[in-house]
Amino acid sequence: MTTNRGITIKTGDVYALNGFSELSQSEQAELVSLCDRKIAEFLERRSDPWSHRRQTEGYIPGTLRYEVLKRARFRCELCGISAEDKALEVDHIVPRNHGGADDAFNLQALCSCNATKRDRDEADFRRIAERYEDRSPGCIFCEMPSERIVRENRLSIAIRDAHPVTRLHTLVIPRRHVADIFDLFQPERNAVFSLLEDMRLEIEKTDQTVTGFNIGANAGKDAGQTVLIRLQY
């Protein structure tokens, strides 16, 4: 309900129709009856009027919210504003009612700049959802044997390099068939960096003599990319 058109009056948490007390008893009864009919018609069309809220709102566990806020380093991941200037909330990148998962890689810390996004975007996410399953026959990364995978999450895998430069040399690879790092969707970038962090901790635990890490991504032949991947859309 709204008060900005003078239709209702709010007292505490209670809304009332402006001028309702000035109506006669018969007019009040007719208005109440009309409202009851409209509510009944609405419930007949939608037997569960709150289903859309359960789809999109739900509960994000506090530990998961903490991880997302910690990753954001005190700033909105959309506009970059500091939490000192605007409060941050945790929201989905791909909304739940468009198939978005309740995983850290599909969550982001956002300020009120995201308030108008909500879950009503008319954009067709079906093709994007399908793209996560893109694989290419004959691609050495798409057909990676399961025994080579040392760690994984829903959107990326980690394997030991077949020709290691150093001991425990590891490759983190997105599951989707992409040309290079610049073709990754934001949830995939989150997943890749989450796996990088997991592998860093695992390597430090496995070999306590490790004191540093090199992280590289070659994009293009001139940048040293040796496995060139073609994409077809």
Total domain units: 3
Distance between the termini: 46 Å
Q: Could you say which overall geometry the principal axes of the C-alpha atoms support? A: elongated
Number of strands: 7
CATH architecture of the largest domain: 2-Layer Sandwich
Let me know the average pLDDT.
79
Low-pLDDT stretches: 52-56
Question: With helices defined by DSSP (H or I, 4 residues minimum), what is the helix count?
Answer: 5
Spatial order of the strands forming the largest sheet: 5-6-7
Q: From N to C, what is the helix and strand string?
A: EEHHHEEHEEEH
| CATH homologous superfamily descriptor of the largest domain | HIT-like
Q: The biggest beta sheet, please? A: 3 strands, antiparallel
What top-tier CATH class of the largest domain fits best? Alpha Beta
Return the structural class: alpha+beta
The CATH topology of the largest domain corresponds to HIT family, subunit A
Radius of gyration: 26 Å
> Helical proportion?
25-40%
Query: Roughly what fraction of the amino acids lie in strands?
Result: 5-15%
